[in-house]
Specification:
The complex is a heterodimer of chains A (about 325) and B (about 270). By secondary structure, chain A is of the alpha/beta class. Chain A contains eleven helices and 13 strands. Chain A is globular. Chain B has one domain (about 1-260). Chain B is about 70% helix and about 0% strand. In chain B, strand 1 (about 55) and strand 2 form a beta hairpin. Classes of the chains: A alpha/beta (about 325), B mainly alpha (about 270). The interface between A and B is medium-sized, with 32 and 28 residues.
Chain lengths: ~325, ~270
């Protein structure tokens, strides 16, 4: 049986229309006009126990709204949600015992207190038995290296340390499901890697179901087999990540600055996408050519003063999927 | 019952953490206490200057007036300790940090209330207790058991009336996102009004402070009972209703807050 079952989920917000200018402002005070915005439109999916699913989409696509409905913070306008056999918004408190939530941008720890105090308070709030608390703290200290900053006030932690503490805090009560809203945002490469390892380990060790939103394609690639992609509140894709990667993730963009002015750059192994003065954007397929192939071809005729190679960003992949779509034969959409 | 004990235990755990957090900023903490004592003493001096001229105000002399003032300050002190965190609810909603209280397996009203325990109110206690002692000596108030019990009831009622209004104002933030301005429009005038005996105000104002925003019960009605003063337009027994008024008003405020919460859950912020 699926641990999360979402059917025809809808969420509408009424937003007060704001008019510009003084007269407009006055008008909206006297006669407020509302526009209905559909943040989530008819989304359905089901997630099995132990799965790690990437829930992604561009800003404002409806990711957070969905997560808020799954965690019981928001009540859906329409449709049904069942999380671990419970309707989250009806039995919010009971649901809270089964889930762990990390909002990458906002800590759930007590800002002014030594980190250990937050853990002890959460132990009380969730009524974690002493023995289990000790056990968990040992495990998390081992994998996350919490020991080095347990006595430091949260406000003095580095972002990486704070995120590690936050994720440990969300797992203290042994939740079945973990919601991670941008868990690697703002972290440096090493901290990101550590975070991913921990998430993976927890998933393996305890069979915790993980739902993850992120803007970092690497998070998804390294952690999830499956992704659900949404845009403008609608589900665009639900299925294997490998398929998406092999189709859209192999394109790279080479950005070069050439020394000469006004050159007409032609490369046979890539496609010139854009140019601004001396800077040129060239897209090439990683499977066909390596970056050095493309670079060496350019250096034969021009002097390069600077260059970078960009991986495709999740946004561009999403917009390509959105434009081109998937046909059923290519990638089976899980229902 | 065990649930209540659990909540009380949790309350003291959370509150203890809040106190330790405040002690991280010791200088600010001490300055606040000093500042509060200075501010209230300032008001008391103003009263004295005024009464020096008029001898009495609405048939209340200087000492009685001081008692009236100190009673309001004392329950306000407790109110700050218990409920002042509600004043920052709108900031939590604007920043999106309020969601945290909804993903935990406890009552969000309780959780929010227990997040801060403002011990800076020591200033209010120092001031009001000193005044009580002084005034009791000056005008011979005899504190027998019955009177002390009545005073306790009056303080609890006063805490609940003022706390209820704080809760009520904070709940507005669930609809409008911002609620700070309501604090200045409702709470601030109500508190200032009760610095003086309601008897000096027009009937309409007295009626509002008795039955709409029941700040008359914070100090005027109970002080009139203790000091044996007349309460024109109202029965002289009205002060005995203080605890009941406090409870009713607070319960209403709590339900309005919960109603606001359910609106928040369906509309977001």
């Amino acid at each position: 049986m699926a641990i999360i079952e979402v059917e025809h989920l809808n969420k509408e917000f009424k937003i007060a229309k704001r008019e510009t200018g003084f007269v407009g402002a006055l008008k909206s005070v006297v006669n407020r006009q509302f526009v209905t915005k559909e943040a989530v439109k008819d989304i359905s999916f089901s997630i099995e126990k132990g799965e790690m699913v990437g829930y992604i989409g561009p800003n404002g696509a409806g990711k957070s709204t969905t997560i808020k409905m799954l965690t019981g913070i928001l009540v859906p306008s329409n449709g049904s949600i069942i999380v671990n056999g419970i309707v989250p918004y009806e039995k919010r408190k009971e649901n809270a015992k089964n889930i762990g939530v990390v909002f990458g941008q906002r800590t759930q720890l007590w800002w002014d207190l030594p980190t250990i105090e937050s853990f002890e308070l959460l132990k009380e709030i969730y009524r974690v038995p002493d023995a289990r608390y000790k056990e968990n703290m040992n495990t998390f200290s081992d994998i996350l290296g919490l020991g080095e900053f347990l006595n430091t006030p949260v406000r003095q932690l580095s972002l990486g340390q704070r995120m590690r503490a936050d994720i440990a805090a969300s797992l203290l009560h042994d939740p079945e499901i973990l919601f991670l809203d941008e868990p690697t945002i703002g972290l440096d490469v090493v901290a990101k890697e550590k975070m991913r390892e921990f998430i993976q380990e927890i998933n393996k060790l305890r069979d915790v179901t993980v739902i993850l939103t992120t803007h970092d394609m690497e998070d998804i690639e390294k952690l999830c087999k499956r992704m659900i992609l949404i845009d403008h509140g609608q589900k665009v894709y639900d299925g294997d990540i490998a398929a998406v990667k092999s189709r859209f993730g192999k394109m790279r963009t080479l950005i070069v600055d050439v020394e000469e002015n006004g050159v007409d750059l032609h490369v046979s192994n890539g496609e010139l996408m854009k140019e601004e003065g001396n800077r040129k954007w060239i897209r090439f397929n990683r499977d066909d050519f390596s970056a050095s192939d493309v670079i060496s071809q350019i250096t034969q005729t021009h002097n390069i003063t600077d260059l970078t190679v960009e991986e495709p960003e999740i946004e561009s992949i999403i917009s390509r999927i959105y434009q081109e779509g998937f046909t059923k034969e290519e990638v089976p959409v899980k229902v | 019952m065990t649930k209540i004990i659990e909540y009380v235990r949790l309350y003291f755990r959370l509150v203890g953490a809040g106190v330790r957090a405040q002690m991280q900023y010791r200088f600010a903490f001490i300055m606040r206490i000093v500042g509060m004592v200075a501010a209230y003493t300032g008001t008391a001096v103003t009263m004295w200057i005024m009464l020096y001229q008029f001898k009495e105000l609405g048939k209340w002399n200087f000492y009685e007036l001081l008692f009236l003032f100190a009673l309001a300050v004392l329950s306000w002190g407790f109110c700050i300790i218990l409920f002042f965190h509600f004043r920052s609810l709108d900031t939590y909603i604007v920043n999106g940090t309020f969601d945290r209280f909804l993903v935990r397996p406890i009552n969000p009203f309780f959780h929010f209330m227990a997040m801060k325990f403002d011990i800076g109110a020591a200033g209010q206690f120092i001031f009001s207790i000193l005044v009580f002692i002084w005034v009791s000596n000056a005008i011979d108030i005899h504190w027998q058991f019955g009177k002390i019990l009545f005073l306790l009831g009056a303080i609890i009622g006063g805490i609940l009336v003022q706390g209820g209004l704080l809760v009520f104002i904070s709940a507005i933030a669930f609809w409008t996102t911002k609620s700070e301005r309501f604090y200045w429009v409702v709470m601030y005038p109500a508190r200032n009004l009760t610095n003086y005996p309601l008897a000096i105000y027009p009937k309409f104002v007295q009626w509002v402070t008795a039955f709409v925003v029941p700040f008359g019960f914070v100090n005027y009605f109970p002080a009139a009972v203790i000091l044996d003063k007349d309460t024109p337009y109202f029965s002289s027994y009205i002060g005995y209703f203080t605890p009941l008024v406090g409870i009713v008003f607070f319960v209403i405020a709590y339900y309005v807050w919960m109603l606001g919460l359910s609106r928040y859950k369906s509309a977001g912020s």
